[in-house]
């Protein structure tokens, strides 16, 4: 899940557009590597992803149940990591696979390719996608680019870059489509977060009193900024969670749908949606929203998959995924019942401080089946 600096990087084609005509902000390449790419250079992180059976099964099945897309074809693996997708592509019959990786994980990928006797097919290339030059166009681009709630990490930018530069006009994207979902949930996490925030403030007041008594310095002037800092951490930062389906209390709403063959960076810089959900449980607490995604391997209209495969990160009775779900808590919680409707607005943009992190604004109005309308609320969240 990582191999390209978003848009223009230091020293690379300043002023390049992002595919939608607008100039892309300059991103410091060294800072971006330190904040993001370095994590993917460690085998423990690769192991976490490789141990995700939902993830692995979906990609494995999409390749080996659709060998006609790979047999005798050229493939580009964007952000190859350990090289597993490149290896599968070769095992499915690809003529040539270019496996691009921005970190020193490329050395491990190269060793893995050699150990599986595929060095004649798979070529591992170390470098960012923006910098890499291939000797030919490719028939297939495969990548596991999805971050938390789909777009965190902004790695899809690299896939768009690779597609626009190297995919043949008849080429296929793996995955081909992606969707973002949200649904109302119930959880005890809301009370815990409030308790944690209150505990942090109690500790701060003890600290300021002790500092003034013991050392003669009054630090109470910093109480407000400390409180704001802790509110952001405990009450406004979305939480990673593996929700149980029984925690979902209403219908799931489609937030965003992406066609990986045609999407531009402009399409994902700002995700805006006005959606609704109906409560499906009697007399329960609306504690927040759960957000997840799914991706599909459908091929393209002119060359469809023989077997369409879905990878979903929705709340599951069985195995969860390492992505889990993002939970956006509501404080205070709201009593709702079956038949109530939630009308909510959703806006997600990239953080100004770090383009790989996200900021979300959620507004919600509860229309009760009795006809009453509860006061609307608006809240800002951070996906960090």
From TrEMBL:
GO molecular function: histone methyltransferase activity; protein-arginine omega-N asymmetric methyltransferase activity
GO-annotated biological processes: methylation
Keyword rRNA processing appears in the UniProt entry: no
PANTHER family linked to this entry: PROTEIN ARGININE N-METHYLTRANSFERASE (PTHR11006), PROTEIN ARGININE N-METHYLTRANSFERASE PRMT10 (PTHR11006:SF68)
EC number(s) reported in the record: 2.1.1.319
Catalytic activity, reaction form: L-arginyl-[protein] + 2 S-adenosyl-L-methionine = N(omega),N(omega)-dimethyl-L-arginyl-[protein] + 2 S-adenosyl-L-homocysteine + 2 H(+)
Name the UniProt record assigns to this protein: Protein arginine N-methyltransferase PRMT10
Group of enzyme by EC: transferase
Gene3D superfamilies cross-referenced by the UniProt entry: Hnrnp arginine n-methyltransferase1 (2.70.160.11), Vaccinia Virus protein VP39 (3.40.50.150)
Name of encoding gene: LOC115977028
Organism listed in the record: Quercus lobata (Valley oak)
GO cellular component: nucleus
Keyword DNA-binding: no
Keywords in alphabetical order: Methyltransferase, S-adenosyl-L-methionine, Transferase
UniProt cross-references to Pfam families, sorted A to Z: PrmA (PF06325), PRMT_C (PF22528)
Domain named Protein arginine N-methyltransferase: residues: 195-364
The protein's assembly and partners: Ring-like homodimer.
